[in-house]
């Protein structure tokens, strides 16, 4: 896709987000992923890692309905939603104290972990890509802690060094794994979405 088309597409999703009152264009990525892979369903508890400004959380809130719960974490403050089943946590999800707060808020396990987290870009492509892999590794560790047996996960990751190993690790932990780019994601960007279903926790069922 050429530069003009890319910009045009970006603009189109921006306008659509505004019209439909979504906080970010990213909302459409989760909507498209969920339509195809049925990651989140009514009544689920969802943990959203790297959630600001809240576009994914907003979609998750719609999907889980009143009986579900969305716990959203970001380094930046997330403006709360009117729904009572939304909890925002300002913190670094790689820090133990944040994980503790997630556990406290959830009071049990989550059916779904979603992460659109991206490192603050330094402009050095290789460094940013490695940081993205680090974040993705942490997301997997958090799954070990808070995700229910047979739960689902979707996360964004930048392809490059460490990506094949990461995928291997995801395949070890989940029954089915797909990698995909939703139509609203720019074709040229190195970002990839890993959709994993059926979490297997070292023989445990909960
Ligand atoms: C692309 S944005 C997420 C957009 C969001 N999905 C939406 O739809 O509005 C990536 C976010 O990851 C967050 N992030 C990166 N590293 C983080 C960390 N260690 N802990 C918490 N949040 C982090 C950034 O602050 C940023 O807000």
Automatic annotation (TrEMBL):
Keywords: Cytoplasm, Methyltransferase, rRNA processing, S-adenosyl-L-methionine, Transferase
Residues reported to bind S-adenosyl-L-methionine: 54, 56, 74, 92, 116
Protein's UniProt keywords contain RNA-binding: no
SUPFAM superfamilies registered for this protein in UniProt: S-adenosyl-L-methionine-dependent methyltransferases
Function in brief: Specifically methylates the uridine in position 2552 of 23S rRNA at the 2'-O position of the ribose in the fully assembled 50S ribosomal subunit.
Reactions it catalyzes: uridine(2552) in 23S rRNA + S-adenosyl-L-methionine = 2'-O-methyluridine(2552) in 23S rRNA + S-adenosyl-L-homocysteine + H(+)
Pfam families for this protein: FtsJ (PF01728)
InterPro entries: RNA_methyltr_RlmE, RNA_MeTrfase_FtsJ_dom, rRNA-MeTfrase_E, SAM-dependent_MTases_sf
Localization (cell): Cytoplasm
Cellular component, GO annotation: cytoplasm
Family indicated by similarity: Belongs to the class I-like SAM-binding methyltransferase superfamily. RNA methyltransferase RlmE family.
Domain Ribosomal RNA methyltransferase FtsJ residue range list: 22-199
Residues the record marks as active site: 156
Lineage: Archaea, Methanobacteriati, Methanobacteriota, Methanomada group, Methanobacteria
Protein name: Ribosomal RNA large subunit methyltransferase E
Organism: Methanobacterium formicicum
Enzyme class: transferase
Keyword Transferase: yes
């Amino acid at each position: 896709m050429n530069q003009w088309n890319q910009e045009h597409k970006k603009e189109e999703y921006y306008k659509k987000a505004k019209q439909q009152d979504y906080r970010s264009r990213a909302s459409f990525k989760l909507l498209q992923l969920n339509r195809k892979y049925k990651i989140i369903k009514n009544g689920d508890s969802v943990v959203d890692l790297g959630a600001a400004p809240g576009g994914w959380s907003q979609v998750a809130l719609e999907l889980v309905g009143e009986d579900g719960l969305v716990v959203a974490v970001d380094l930046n403050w997330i403006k709360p939603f009117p729904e009572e089943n939304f909890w925002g946590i300002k913190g670094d999800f790689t820090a133990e104290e944040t994980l503790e707060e997630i556990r406290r808020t959830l009071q049990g396990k989550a059916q779904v972990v979603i992460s659109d987290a991206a490192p603050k870009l330094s402009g050095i492509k290789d460094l940013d890509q490695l940081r993205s892999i680090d974040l993705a590794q942490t997301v997997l560790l958090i799954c070990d802690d808070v995700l229910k047996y047979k739960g689902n996960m979707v996360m964004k990751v930048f392809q490059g060094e460490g990506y094949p190993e990461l995928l291997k690790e995801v395949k070890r932990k989940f029954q089915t794994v797909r990698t995909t780019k939703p139509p609203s994601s720019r074709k040229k960007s190195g970002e990839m979405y890993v959709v994993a279903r059926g979490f297997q926790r070292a023989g445990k069922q909960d």
